[in-house]
Amino acid sequence: MNTKLLLKTVFLIVLLLLLVLIGLYNRQSVAFVLPPLLTKSVQLPAALMYFVFFAVGLFAGTLLTAGGGRKGGSGAGKGSKSDR
Q1: Mean pLDDT, the chain, as a whole number?
Q2: How far apart are CA 71 and CA 48, in angstroms?
Q3: How far from the centroid of its chain's Cα atoms is residue 51's Cα?
Q4: Could you tell me the pLDDT band of residue 68, with boundaries at 50, 70 and 90?
Q5: How far is 48 from 64, CA to CA, in rounded Å?
Q6: What pLDDT was estimated at residue 16?
Q7: Quick one: how far is CA 81 from the chain centroid?
Q8: How many C-beta neighbours within 10 Å does residue 25 have?
Q9: Residue 31 forms beta bridges with which residues?
Q10: Total Cβ atoms within 10 A of residue 31
Q11: Is residue 38's pLDDT more than 70?
Q12: C-alpha 37: how far from chain center
């Protein structure tokens, strides 16, 4: 098994455990205010707000790191196994 994949999986499990613990112990409502985007404050439980921030960050990180093509740039067609 790939060690890098194993470490990433363990890291994700630890983050999800942290989300569960935050959900268990932070039930009070908090106000979220962001004047440029929201005209009035949003009242949500702290755990739900943390989960939303985590999901937005994870989605943004996935979009930024997603690969879109072949490695090697312009020389990708030279000497590849499919040409031989």
Answers
A1: 82
A2: 39
A3: 11
A4: low
A5: 24
A6: 86
A7: 34
A8: 10
A9: 43
A10: 10
A11: yes
A12: 22
